[in-house]
Amino acid sequence: MKTAVWWIRRDLRLTDNQALTEALRQAGTVIPLFILDPKLLSSDYVGPARLAFLFEGLRALDSSLRERGSRLILREGDPPEVLTTLFREMQVEGIFAEEDYSPYARQRDERISLILPLQLLPGATIFPPQMLHKANDEPYTVFTPFSRMWRSLPFSGAPLPSPRQLPSVPELASLEIPTQATYSTGHTTFKAGEAEAQKRISRFTERNIFEYANMRNRMDLEGTSQLSPYLRLGMLSARQAAWTARQAMESAETSTAREGVDSWLNELIWREFYASILYHFPFVRNMAFKADLRQIPWHDNPVALAAWQNGLTGYPVVDAAMRQLRTTGWMHNRARMITASFLTKDLLIDWREGERFFMQQLLDGDPASNNGGWQWTAGTGTDAAPYFRVFNPILQGQKFDPKGNYVRNWVPELKKVPIKYLHAPWEMPLEMQKQVDCLVGSDYPAPIVDHAMARKRVLLAYRGQSLD
User: Fold this and answer.
1) What is the arithmetic mean of pLDDT over 78-84?
2) Chain segment 162-181, per-residue pLDDT in tens
């Protein structure tokens, strides 16, 4: 094969890139191509933060390609049309891409496969969803047996090294990568690119992975890997993440350390589980997995929804989490569960409202994982938390932010509030509110809903009954 296209989608990396490796094996000239797809860029599920992260990642990838004698070609348009044009321009003989499993990606790739020689390679997940099924060929809908099957499969091999040199790219027209200012996020918490992803996974596996089981739920500690944005856009391969966990397990010296590593690996398996669910049951993007929970009488409450979105609910741990999301494009996983439970259970607002808002805000917004997480918390999904599990935002804050550092960091109005009242500031005596410059209802909102009442209401609603 003389000339091939490496079609970059969710794999902004050179290390352990099976699509790039296969293209290099089969072709003398490989054109690295990224297509700005207007349908994706204008989607209700895409927001400025993730676009900024994507464009910054493309610049980092282009820089790495140029160091190796190649460069990134950027085009915009409907992928079949863009690829067909490039085929004619360069007499391309093959297109190599990492397989994606979202409904849109599968439909797009099926269309292209009918007219062009598209070869899809693994990489978005460690094991393709098609591989993991029951003995009767039905897909798993419960995590534990899925996990057992996943762990029983032989590992798919060590990560591939980054190529040292790449073939030069012919003279081709290419768009400029949009500047980050076009999609300004106002933060630099997550630096995009493969190099940053490699630094983070090295730093995490030096120490925190061994303490992960004990630290992962503490919102006030740096106890998680914060690698999800890099996995989302393939700046780090899922296989390298799992391989690194396996290496860490071999060096773990205590049962606590081994538990920590295994707990983190389990999170990678959850990611694969949700990818499998979306692959086999694409309707979950639009409706509850559980048919008997598709008629919940959700409340249409724009005022309450806006208060939740802006971190003004009057419940400190909820507000801290939502402000963290809007400021950084990321949220601690425990906080995701707390805020999702508050929206669906306390406010009785449709989980799809929260799912869409998270996708608009999150750097790691992934159709499968985000949907799976929201349906799990709402109780509507496969292998979900039971519908009667309603997180108490006060107790959650006390348990997972025991010193109040997380709340004080993101809700500065409460900075001076004593820990005794921090997670329920409305219980503060009025004189104390004045002393700490935080009048509830003025400086900081009073609770927009009574949790005890809301819990009774949602349990009745899920049973098709009313509180009235």
Assistant:
1) 97
2) 999 999 999 999 999 998 65
Angle of helix 316-328 relative to helix 393-400, nearest 10 degrees? 70
CA atoms of 424 and 431, how far apart (whole Å): 16
Catalytic one among 351, 371, 376, 413?
351
Is 351 a catalytic site residue? yes
Catalytic residue among 93, 214, 266, 298: 298
- Which candidate, 427, 434, 407, places its Cα nearest to that of 318? 407
- For domain 125-155+194-280, the CATH class is mainly alpha
pLDDT computed for residue 207 by the predictor: 87
Instruction: Determine which one of 264, 374, 376, 410 is catalytic.
Output: 374
**Higher pLDDT pick, 387 / 419:** 419
Active site residue 7: no
Tokens of 344: 């669906």
Q: Round to whole Å and give the CA distance between 355 and 371.
A: 6
Q: Which two tokens stand for residue 174?
A: 């290419």
Mean pLDDT of the chain: 95
Q: What is the pLDDT of residue 385?
A: 76
Is 150 annotated in the active site?
Answer: no
Q: What is the pLDDT of residue 115?
A: 96
The active-site residue out of 333, 405, 409, 426 is: 333
Residue range(s) occupied by CATH 1.25.40.80 in the chain = 125-155+194-280
Distances (CA, A) of 340 to 101, 129, 344, 372: 25, 27, 6, 12
Superfamily of domain 291-462: DNA Cyclobutane Dipyrimidine Photolyase, subunit A, domain 3 (1.10.579.10)
Q: In the chain, which segments carry CATH 1.10.579.10?
A: 291-462
Catalytic residue status for 267: yes
Write out the DSSP string of 118-179.
EEEE--SSSS-GGG---TTSPPP-SHHHHHHHHHHSPP--SPPPPPS--PPPPS---PPPPP
CA 23 – CA 5 distance, rounded (Å): 7
On whether the pTM is more than 0.90, the answer is: yes
Q: Is the pLDDT score of 443 beyond 80?
A: yes
The whole-angstrom separation of Cα 248 and Cα 242 is 10
Q: What is the pLDDT of residue 468?
A: 60
Active site residue 308: no
270 is catalytic: yes
Task: Give the fold, CATH level 3, of 3-124.
Answer: Rossmann fold (3.40.50)
pLDDT in tens, 198-224: 999 999 999 899 999 999 999 999 999
CA atoms of 427 and 448, how far apart (whole Å): 15
